[in-house]
Design goal:
The chain has 332 residues and is of the alpha/beta class. It folds into two domains: 6-251, Aldolase class I (TIM Barrel), CATH 3.20.20; 261-331, Up-down Bundle (Four Helix Bundle (Hemerythrin (Met), subunit A)), CATH 1.20.120.1460. Helices cover 47% and strands 13% of the residues. Helix 7 packs parallel to helix 8 (149-162).
Amino acid sequence: MLVSNAATRAAPLSVAPMMDWTDRHCRVFHRQISRHALLYTEMVTAPAVIHGDRGRLLGFDAVEHPVALQLGGSDPAELAEAARIAAGYGYDEINLNVGCPSDRVQSGCFGAVLMERPGLVADCVAAMIAAAPVEVTVKCRIGVDDQVPEEVLPAFLDTVAAAGVTRFAIHARKAWLQGLSPKENRDVPPLDYPLVLAMKRAFPALHVSVNGGIASLDQAESFLAAGLDGVMIGRAAYHEPYEILGAADARIFGAESGTDRFEVVEAMRPYIARHLETGGRLHQITRHMLGLFHGQPGARTWRRILSERANAPGAGLEVLDAALAPLRDLAA
């Protein structure tokens, strides 16, 4: 089986899959800032891929490469079919969600609850690998509820790796499926970075990325220097995209630095124009761009104009120009 390694080459820094955030517009925007970071879709369930609107769920712009699809599910046959379908769309990686703690995920027996069923996860990824010529990876937690992470995580990695997975992204928190909301599960359970580092030492042949609470490139570089293969950043990359992604190409990948903030906006204009021409709304794209000028003079005005005007019927590129003008004046 031929496996693309484009995603693995990009995995030293990735933007985490985030529901309602990392849609195709967000990913195109992030790609204007970093040419090399690995981008993930929102989680899509295997049944939705099989039975739903595939163009809407799986379609993406070629500029997004390297890009990974995250699937949710627990039925090996369904996941295999979904992976086969997704491979036809050209994704560089297909990732199985074994970390999401939402009630909806629990009731469907996928996401973090699968930490309790490593054998089933192994069956799922084996079926996916057999069905699709695309790298299959897993994103997981360190454990759930009363599990002892030091015991269950190495056993989980060992079982799933034996089924053919060589790359894992580990959210360094437990998921408390009883007693904590999905939002609380992103912050309340304590982070255990040393355990993730220990897993890399215990499984040196595996590609191990750490996720959870990482807020800066300095922090990302420290994890890479400590021996981890990758760092996955979520909310910080979304709310402060330029701080995380703007210097990533140079600092993490040894490539040329990316464009400046104004060039990012200019690069988005043709994409926005095409979206508007096909009946799309401006705010569907600009809502992801609110944090571009975080920490810069005029950032509040930028956010205010886009937030207030981009959702209006017929709003077009003139709103983007109005939001950008004060920042250009301040930068002059």
